[in-house]
Amino acid sequence: MKALLSGNEAVARGAYESGVKVAAAYPGTPSTEILQNFAQYEGVYAEWAPNEKVAFEVGIGASMAGVRVLVAMKHVGLNVAADPFMTFAYTGVRGGFLLTSADDPGMHSSQNEQDNRYFARFALIPLLEPSDSQEAKDMVGVGLRLSEQFDTPTMLRLTTRISHAKGVVRLGKIKEVEPKGFTLDLQKYVMIPAYARMRHPLVLKRLEKLRRYAERTPLNRIEWGDRSVGIISGGVAYQYAKEVMPKASFLKLGLTYPLPEAKIREFASQVEVLFVVEELEPFLEEQIRAVGLSVEGKAFFPRLGELSPEVVAEGFRKAGVLKVRRRRSRVPPGAALPRPPIMCPGCPHRSVFFALNRIKGIVMSDIGCYTLSVLPPLQAIHSCICMGASISGAQGVAKAIEKAGVRDDRPVFAVLGDSTFLHSGVTGLMDVAYNKGNVNIIVLDNRTTAMTGGQQHPGTGRTLQGEETFQVDFLKLAEALGIRRVRVVDPYDLKGMTRAFKEEAAVPEPSFIVTNRPCVMLEKFDSSLVYRVDPERCEGCGICLRLGCPAILPGEEIPSKKGKKVRRKVSIDPSLCRGCSVCEQLCKQEAISGPPPRPA
Amino acid sequence: MAKASWEVNNVLIVGVGGQGVILASEILSEVAMRSGFDVKKSEVHGMAQRGGIVSSHVRYGSEVASPLIPQGEVDVLLAFELAEAVRWIGFLSPKGRVIASRQRLVPPIVSTGLASYPEDAESILQRETWAPVLVDAQQLANQLGNPRLVNTILLGVASRLLELPHRTWRRVVSERVPKAYRELNLAAFEQGRGILGSSSVS
User: How many A-B residue pairs are in contact by the CB < 8 A criterion?
Assistant: First the structure.
């Protein structure tokens, strides 16, 4: 049977077909759909873990118990899970263990574009890179077999254009794998220095065996064509190269670490010029150069951003092996309209940043929808580094002011979402309490992991499967960690919330503030909540436009004196307004009206 | 638009987050697969819900390599919004056609004065592309009784330019929309399909 599957759906299907019984992940674009799809199969266990490190460790335990395991994360998630990852590479597995890392070249939805292929090389474990959905499914099975055969975790590396591209996939049969059960093997699994020293040489021996496997596996195949140009490639880059140089000879690598040195030498010896086409870093190129072969890569294909057929074509053109001329764009200048992503109408985050702008504090922010508040018109935050960095970063700012002679009397805020707080903000909060930092922490609790499309987490009271479960009590948690000033605010009450922020900023001790409105995506649109503008009263002052709400639209021009700024009456799009009432609270002419928002 | 069977057909569907671009490309891809073609489809998820630019590349043929359509090779550009149609015309092949809904979605950045909406979008399409098809899809959808029928109408228009079996289109559209709206969507599809008489297919 055939189906049209995305790379992520194909990985989930491959895991199911290969007898994977336990899977864990933390959501992150472009990896999120892997676990969401896997969880829908019968007879498997899947969980959203609070973060990638926890997910990885759940996977380690399940593997030790002898079942096949899948863990999935985005590229930067592996930074969080790097600690267990590096040592698990020493212990090896019992049940097959597949780590899926979904990288984001071009940073469609990420804070960096690190190339996680280096992680596999760092840990000395096998690395598989599919070039389409069919390969993504098949490589899950291959990766689990490699894992068991060579006693190693295997890494399957996807990129956005594999994860989120759909292709035709032949579905396979479901393989039943007998669980092996937990057995004692202290020298394998207890990594005290004496035992770890015994494991490290085994890791190197394993690598040699994997090198021999890389030479003979059909995952690495030569496709002979015109021998004047030889191209080594893998992943989606292979498809782009194939698209623009269909007649060239290819060494298509599916296992990209460790590399098949002899096969590469054989291929190189039979082509006139050798290219490596790879996205991001010169991972293959440098290893190929290191064995003394002459090869071209990053001189022609950029190290920055995503590749595409035209970028690859341009590289071959520059290298002088592709003659087709580049088609010129017909887009007239000025026609390209920017559409920066924005917070939704009624988003409970918006007013928080409007209030913070009025207070003029230092605002350390985090990863989530609310990071969009850096863009105009709000422009309210001053940092975003990685998950959880807001609180600990704010602690650093506060201590630099308090103890290191930095002259600044602005209050220090940390702002982060509920899911991000549970992911890695809790330890930062502990630090603030423990080391008495003068930081005001705002948790934007919208009761979901919104940025990735609305996943459950330990603060929502529901599991991945939607079952009811224990719900973290944010206020009690903060109190237990040692924060004395804890409170809840309603972000739809601009005045009350601003007052609360001011009060907490004035007190020289840490505070913990939780907002109480859910993400608008969780609620059905209700036309009875819509606000409207009275055109007779609107004077076009534009203060409501400073909220950056997509439902508020400037309209009819108001005649004004020469040289004065043009004013426009506003209107509210009734198909977009969610009735948060914040614009109404700002309007001095009382031109905006609607029903009061429902209680939070 | 007739192509040799081994050639790859390239359809670029574009719009703004929330307009139904992804569903439309799902339906087209499914129709192509069931018609016996190799299919690839690529788009970027993540920020799409938040009013951002959405583009979905659909390619089908006997064998498809790249999931992204090479610039200058789009056969049909199906745009759910006028400024979005303009943004992507550089991807069209010399014989490529634009089908665009006359809808305009002005992003908030325009109201802040940091950008301006291309008011002359329609004339740009008329000037820069060959025989663009401009559709009052919203108006038609409202006449049919549901503003959400816009993407089905546009798919109907596009189906005239794509040589895929009419029956398969109808079957997939029926399967992909909520049961209660099945007949309405099929009517919308046919309405769209009727916009281009067979004489205008080239």
Answer: 157
